[in-house]
Design brief:
The complex is a heterodimer of chains A (about 525) and B (about 525).
Chain A (H helix, E strand, L loop, with lengths): L2 H16 L8 H29 L9 E9 L4 E7 L3 H21 L10 H20 L3 H10 L1 H11 L4 H30 L4 H7 L6 H18 L8 H8 L2 H26 L1 H30 L7 H21 L3 H32 L4 H5 L6 H4 L1 H14 L6 H14 L7 H29 L18 H19 L2 H14 L4
Helix pairs in contact in A: 1-2, 1-4, 2-3, 2-4, 3-4, 3-11, 3-14, 3-20, 4-5, 4-6, 5-7, 6-7, 7-9, 7-10, 8-11, 9-11, 9-12, 10-13, 11-12, 11-13, 11-14, 12-13, 12-19, 13-14, 13-18, 13-19, 14-17, 14-18, 14-20, 14-21, 17-19, 18-19, 18-20
Chain B lengths: L4 H15 L17 H19 L6 H16 L2 H4 L4 E5 L6 E5 L1 H27 L4 H17 L6 H20 L4 H32 L4 H9 L6 H18 L8 H8 L2 H26 L4 H25 L7 H27 L5 H27 L11 H4 L1 H15 L5 H16 L3 H26 L13 H19 L2 H8 L4
Antiparallel strand pairs in B: 1-2
Helix pairs in contact in B: 2-3, 2-6, 3-5, 3-6, 5-6, 5-12, 5-15, 5-20, 6-7, 6-12, 7-8, 7-12, 8-9, 8-10, 8-11, 9-12, 10-12, 11-12, 11-14, 12-14, 12-15, 13-14, 13-19, 14-15, 14-18, 14-19, 15-17, 15-18, 15-20, 15-21, 17-18, 17-19
Classes of the chains: A mainly alpha (about 525), B mainly alpha (about 525).
């Protein structure tokens, strides 16, 4: 039993339960207190994750630490098994950080109005969401993983459907139906493994490395799990729920969706698919790589099309499509089945979480100020001229954009480089020419990514400050915005300049998962 | 005859000698009163209510409901001594020819469901009987009689007792449906009665055939007889088996015998609809499982496939029907629950089909577990629908804004619906589906598992739309009437039960691991 990890899951869960009871007599006080309560709980959670990271034995990141392992449902062999290693620790810290930043941001900037529920409900859902996200990265039992994977759906559904804008209810429905269909198929894969191997324990299954499962079982299970996780990641062509969900979601919803929820899919691929059904994974790796490469090019082309003048492109939609491209790199790294590729994928996971989280915060702020995220309306004839009108926001946006396009020295660079390096020299048994083609496509994707991000920077940040703008008053960076965005910008820089910080954690663990030690 | 006088004489002598046994006392079956206590207490309770109705003065008729509830509690308590030790048997043929009544784990679990479901339905009825001016004596007598039949059925181990128990369970149910003296009630009762009686006739014909082919009505003897049936009797035996199963399929409301469900549920008093959806379904299901797995085991692969197809069709038709159900028409809440119960019946049939493939009764544990979970949350949902109906709304749209009026009822209904959908926070519903999936995967019914996965995802849509209605802003200010105490008790019991099971699923899922028979 390890108290820290259990407390990490219980704290937000109890917090969510506490929001069922009103905090104050009148709605205004109730909402204010609820939001502060949310900041307090998520802050405590972040403190716990920092304690967890401090107590983590950095010399042996491949070993599961802070382990709790007790019977939960002996009837079907489900154990309450928790633990962290070098792969899950950074994701847990990222989740806690992003949730806290979202809670802080929401204290000042929560959509409200007619038909939108109060802040107490928002806090409850945010905390429930955090429980599910943290649990996904902390559990070591397949059924528990599935449970955690599903916990996030209901809160995210309501965040989009109630606090969103535009076509929010259809988008939310689409989000939940896609994910649920995928995860139901994924569950079948888990059960196939559990029934044949006689255990749902992820560490035991990973140590067995596929022995005890026939080739056919592995192939079928890998296909089912891959389908479920590919919807979540999302891999082209199963991505079509993502742009709608992002466009409709409120800012914090988008930040958590891109920053954490997508990572649950790729984390599952690394944690479950690679070590538990290695033969099945090897069968599908070339296809996954192909879909990833197509996704990279497709995402960038969609963004280019949205960024064109006169295309009526929505900025949030554009960043959503850019996520499809970036997650393509992650999937490509995983598909290469090499140590460098998977390390790159995990690094890109964190990098994308930081950068896209920041981008969605910034775009949300622009949307709040202008009342629209439509690129044509924003930029007018020459450009929105944020450099001139709101220089700090403009600078941050440009910073996030160049980080996103993979400028060396920032967090976006290392992951994509390593993923492409993995594709350059894929694992034995995979077709080298095919992966070289994917790598070339991915390289083309980086060029296209640079292209559309620079167009966006040009149209949003540059321009003539004197031209008539949709809004006359354009406040620059506010203090709550600075508080919630600075950590992301700083970490983007740190991860870019000191990649060993993350790679030293993930590398031994990846080697272990790939069966090399 | 004349040419063989000695032969006739000899035959007559043998007949005489078998009749004139040395110890006539051995033919009298001993009765284990403790084993048969659960159905017996319910039946005696029914008689007591009938007598009390005659003897009590009109103003103390309210006591009848309390007598009924007390009888059901006593019947449930009578289950307790049976849980310890080996399975008790009674009404056994001398010489090991099989027993007619066996209180094994299967029987106890379904008796718990039947009596517990009846108890919850009775609690729901306490205020309905008063408010709708239903004849109290008849109502409680019929409810208890039906519950007694439903409790007898899962313990019955010969075809004759099974049919009698099934009729004892359903005949009072027709009258219960028709108790509301309006056109709708009479029409529903007639529809229910005619289709049910047809099914019974078909089933009796089938049982006749089976008896003719095997020479026994005891399920174990039937299984032996079918395995060793001479060639010319095979078609008769097979036709008999099919016809018998058809009769039970009707009671489960499997496709194509499902069409009576929505009309009957809407015409019946609401607690009766809840009772039918849980106890009525459970009695049919337990009979089907018994006859199929114990009696017709030699034909396992044949009826296994037939039931698998039936399960797939039933869940699909039920869910499509629910999807097509409009939310703004009268009685749409009950109609939606009716269609959903058809879909759920499909899930319940999956492990029975798997038992056919497995050749043992082991997969049935999943049906038992799922039926218990379904019964609890479905009656809870009916309870909240009853709360809403009291403030004048029978449409799903009348649930709009329920959270603002009845906070706890709305939360309870959301919880029940998510349990039915199998999505966290309704954890127990999720695990119910997990064990059903596991049974299908374990038996090699991969295609059925995939069909079910698609159905679970589709079904989520209407459960979620309903859940979202609860938290939507209210249209008009409907006044919040106080919830009567028995109704509140039902909601509290079911919600607390589902919540406890969500934390400790082992409590109900333990039936999956042990042997049932």
């Amino acid at each position: 039993m390890n108290a820290v990890l259990i407390a990490l899951l219980l704290l937000p869960l109890l917090g969510a339960a506490a929001t069922l009871v009103p905090f104050g007599p009148d709605p205004a006080a109730d909402g204010r207190r609820a939001l502060r309560f949310g900041v307090g709980v998520t802050g405590a959670v972040l403190a716990l994750t920092v304690a967890l990271a401090a107590g983590f034995d950095h010399d042996r990141p491949a070993r599961m630490q802070a382990v709790t392992d007790t019977d939960w449902i002996p009837a079907i062999g489900v154990r309450f098994h928790l633990g962290v290693d070098g792969i899950s620790l950074p994701l847990i810290v990222l989740t806690a950080l992003l949730t806290l930043l979202c809670a802080v941001y929401s204290t000042k900037r929560l959509p409200s109005g007619d038909g939108i529920p109060g802040a107490r409900a928002f806090t409850g859902l945010l905390l429930l969401l955090e429980t599910g996200m943290l649990a996904t990265f902390a559990v070591l039992d397949l059924v528990l993983f599935f449970l955690a994977f599903e916990i996030v759906l209901i809160p995210m559904y309501f965040l989009i459907a109630r606090w969103g804008s535009g076509r929010k209810v259809p988008s939310a429905n689409r989000f939940i139906l896609y994910t649920l269909l995928g995860s139901a198929v994924m569950l079948l894969g888990f059960l196939l493994i559990g029934v044949n191997a006689g255990t749902f324990d992820m560490t035991r299954l990973a140590d067995a490395h596929g022995s005890g499962l026939t080739h056919t079982t592995q192939v079928i299970a890998a296909l089912a799990i891959l389908l479920g996780l590919a919807v979540k990641a999302p891999a082209w062509p199963l991505h079509s729920w993502l742009p709608d969900a992002h466009t409709a979601a409120p800012t914090v919803g988008s930040v958590l969706l891109a920053g954490v929820l997508l990572k649950m899919g790729t984390y599952g691929l690394v944690r479950i698919l690679l070590p538990i059904v290695p033969q099945g994974t090897a069968t599908f790796a070339p296809y996954l790589g192909a879909f990833a490469a197509v996704g990279i090019v497709y995402g960038s082309l969609a963004c280019l099309a949205l960024a064109r003048p006169g295309a009526k492109g929505d900025l949030k939609r554009l960043i959503a499509y850019s996520s499809v491209g970036h997650m393509g790199f992650v999937l490509l790294g995983i598909a290469s089945l090499t140590q460098s590729g998977v390390n790159g994928a995990l690094f890109a996971n964190i990098g994308h979480g930081l950068i896209t989280g920041l981008l969605f915060f910034l775009v949300g702020a622009v949307k709040d100020r202008y009342g629209t995220a439509d690129l044509d309306t924003l930029s007018g004839a020459t450009g929105a001229a944020l450099y001139g009108r709101a220089p700090r926001i403009g600078a941050l946006l440009a910073f996030a954009a160049v980080a996103s396009l993979g400028l060396p020295g920032l967090a976006g660079f290392w992951g994509e480089l390593l993923a492409m390096y993995g594709a350059f020299d894929p694992a034995a048994g995979l077709s080298r020419p095919a992966f070289l083609t994917y790598m070339v496509l991915a390289g083309l994707g980086t060029l296209l990514t640079a292209g559309y991000l620079l167009v966006v920077v040009k149209r949003v940040c540059m321009g003539d400050p004197k031209q008539p703008a949709p809004v006359t008053e354009l406040p620059d960076l506010k203090s709550y915005e600075a508080v919630s965005w600075t950590p992301l910008a700083a970490l983007t820089l740190v991860a870019g300049l000191w990649p060993a910080l993350l790679l030293s954690l993930s590398d031994p663990a990846v080697k272990h998962l790939l069966g090399g030690g | 005859m004349l040419s063989h006088p000695t032969g006739t004489h000899l035959l007559g002598q043998t007949a005489m000698s078998t009749l004139a046994v040395t110890d006539p006392g051995s033919l009298i079956q001993s009765v284990d009163w403790v084993a048969i206590a659960p159905p017996l207490v319910a039946a005696l309770g029914g008689l007591a209510v009938l007598l009390a109705d005659l003897l009590l003065p009109a103003r103390s008729r309210k006591a009848l409901g309390r007598i009924a509830v007390g009888a059901l509690v006593l019947a449930l308590a009578a289950l307790l001594p049976l849980t310890r030790g080996a399975a008790r048997t009674t009404f056994c043929l001398p010489g090991g020819g099989g027993c007619s009544y066996v209180a094994d784990h299967f029987a106890l679990a379904f008796q718990l469901l039947a009596l517990g479901g009846a108890l919850l339905a009775a609690l729901l009825s306490l205020h309905t009987v008063d408010e709708e001016k239903l004849p109290g004596g008849e109502y409680w007598f019929l409810l208890l009689s039906s519950a007694s039949g439903a409790a007898l059925l899962p313990a019955a181990r010969d075809l004759a007792t099974l049919v009698i128990a099934l009729e004892v369970a359903s005949l009072p149910a027709f009258a219960l449906v028709g108790l509301r003296r309006d056109g709708r009630g009479a029409e529903s009762a007639l529809k229910f009665f005619l289709s049910s009686v047809t099914a019974t006739a078909v089933m009796l014909l089938g049982i006749g055939f089976v008896y003719a082919a095997t020479g026994s009505v005891h399920l174990t003897a039937v299984a032996d007889g079918l395995a060793h049936a001479p060639g010319q009797l095979r078609p008769l035996a097979e036709a008999g088996a099919v016809l018998t199963l058809v009769g039970f399929a009707f009671k489960v409301a499997a496709v194509p015998f499902h069409f009576w469900v929505p009309d009957t549920y809407t015409g019946a008093p609401l607690p009766v609809a809840g009772y039918l959806s849980v106890v009525g379904k459970a009695s049919g299901l337990s009979g089907l499982a018994l006859v199929a797995t114990l009696g017709f085991r030699p034909y396992g692969h044949t009826w296994g496939l037939a039931l698998a197809v039936l399960a797939a069709l039933t869940m699909t038709v039920g869910n499509v029907g629910a999807l097509r159900q409009r939310f703004d028409t009268g009685h749409s809440a009950v109609r939606l629950l009716a269609w959903s119960s058809v879909g759920q019946a499909g899930y319940l049939l999956v492990p029975v089909a798997a038992a056919g493939y497995a050749g043992t009764g082991d997969p049935l544990g999943a049906t038992v577990a799922y039926a218990l979970i379904y019964g609890l949350v479905n009656l809870g949902a009916f309870g909240v629908v009853a709360v809403v109906q009291r403030s004048g709304g029978t449409r799903v749209d009348d649930h709009r804004g329920l959270f603002a009026r009845h906070r706890w009822s709305a939360l309870a209904l959301a919880f029940f619906l998510l349990c039915l959908a199998g999505l966290p926070p309704g954890v127990i519903g999720l695990f119910g589906k997990v064990v059903v999936f596991r049974a299908a995967v374990d038996a090699g019914l991969g295609w059925l598992a995939v069909v079910m996965a698609a159905n679970v995802a589709v079904a989520l849509y209407y459960y979620l739309l309903w859940t979202a209605r609860l938290f939507a802003p209210a249209e008009g200010a409907a006044e919040a009437r106080r919830v009567p105490a028995p109704l509140a008790a039902t909601l509290g019991l079911t919600a607390a039960g589902a919540a406890v099971l969500s934390v400790a699923p082992q409590l109900v899922l333990q039936v999956v691991s042990g042997s049932l028979f």
